[in-house]
Amino acid sequence: MATTKVLLSPEHPGLGRLDPSPPGTLELTSELLQKNHEKYHMYFRDVAGHNHIPHSLLTVLAMGGGRKELNRAYDDGYVIQRPLAPADREVVKKLGDAERFKEHMYTLTEYSNFLAFFEQEIDAKGWKAVLNKYCFSRTPFADTMLSQLYEGLYHPIIHLGFGVEFDQPSLVAEGLAHAASHDSSQIEPFFLETEKLAKSSSVKPKPLVGLYAEIRANQKIREAAWLKDGPLRGQGVLKRAHDELVQIAAQFQVKPEDLERGTAEMISCGALTSAAQKAGKTRKIDFFYLHIVTCSIFFSALNQQDWLKIEDKVRLLEWKGRLDLVWYAANGAAEMKSENVLGYEPSLSKGWDWRAIYKESNEIHDDGHVVKFMRALKHGEDVVEPHVKQEGAASFPVHGDMWLKIAQICYDSTATIERDPPGQLSKKWVWGAGFEPPWFQIPDLKSAV
Fold it and tell me: What is the predicted pLDDT for the residue at 332?
């Protein structure tokens, strides 16, 4: 099937790009993506274990990486992956029926079956038509699939976003299969309830940055965030402060004519979570908050799609901004002070510009989180700054030099940590910026070198 063939094109170079790719890198990236598509499962473990190989490869490519950096990205990812199990053809035949499809959803071991099914669908109808049918047709089934894209700390929509950005049917099929097979944390009721409330005209829209402040100021929401929930903390806070989160999140509303501005607002406010630091501690980026940032770039890619209706683009954006607020709450609603960024004095990255950040980040041993964060920040700068110049900075809390400063914080705090121990939390990040215990292991500022 043509869908299973990976073939990158210079016509889709990727967002946030500064320089052309070196000769031969499109071909190498296609080869490595093909290998991942044929050999590896989407989940390398049952809980919070997503395959990041395509994310890492395509980001390194967009950031100008060469053959060495691309091979580094692949080698850092493949060693932990599970082999892709063969699809059950009898099951795949039945997935065309919506009721049978739903019977197999939310089960990680069904990934291979969903992948084979969506490959067939895309081969027959094209990936754009398939996305419109399964995610944007406004049926209850499509709403379920759309909400599933946001599951797992945004991972399915990140994966799908790469497929859209680089025009790769194989990645779109993987992203849809990812969404269908991912376990549910019940965010669909939250999305639909906030949407209904927003359309009722009983709550007025407010700037997103103010809604972040409301989340932090709400005592019930803060107390609903439990560190012991681990990777399921989003589900936990939705259970314990559901009504309060719905009421606040429904106030993020975007008019179709304000799509680009709303996207910039979401990107800038999401990046502000990078300023969630702890007084007296060396600067670290929070692992959960960084996904708010790394996911944001793909909403620009989706906005560029002429086959996607404006009302669906608006819906995608509103759901993203509303879920960002949930994840901000779930991680303790950490205090975010812009001076944590503005006053930062770079160490390893002192004097660097974006090209230096890109080059050096591409060489860090990592599973793709560092480079994704860097590219999303540079893209954020490109998208947000024109709006800041037009309307002032009130709704765009991250602006100006802050984009590069946040990137420097990320580089300086991750570059010297070469490899993470298998099965352990990465030392590159702080794992819960709004809670006290995760900061215990972070060095004090006075002892930092």
Answer: 97
Asked whether residue 171 falls in the same domain as residue 211, the answer is: no
Q: What angle do CA 220, 437, 330 make, to 5 degrees?
A: 35
Instruction: Quickly tell me which residue has 């709006």 as its tokens.
Output: 387
Give phi and psi for 286, each to the nearest 5: -80, 135
What is residue 318's three-state secondary structure?
helix
pLDDT digits 0-9 by tens, 71-83: 999 999 999 999 9
Given this model, what pLDDT does residue 390 score?
87
Q: What percent of the chain has pLDDT over 90?
A: 92
Please tell me the total count of domains within the chain.
2
What whole-number distance in Å separates Cα of residue 318 and Cα of residue 104?
A: 28
CA nearest neighbour of 96 among 189, 182, 180: 180
Instruction: Quote the domain boundaries for residue 388.
Output: 188-447
- Please state, in angstroms and rounded to a whole number, the distance separating the CA atoms of residues 194 and 353: 41
Virtual CA dihedral for 341, 345, 350, 353, nearest 10 degrees? Answer: 20
Mean pLDDT of the chain: 96
Q: What are 440's two structure tokens? A: 């215990």
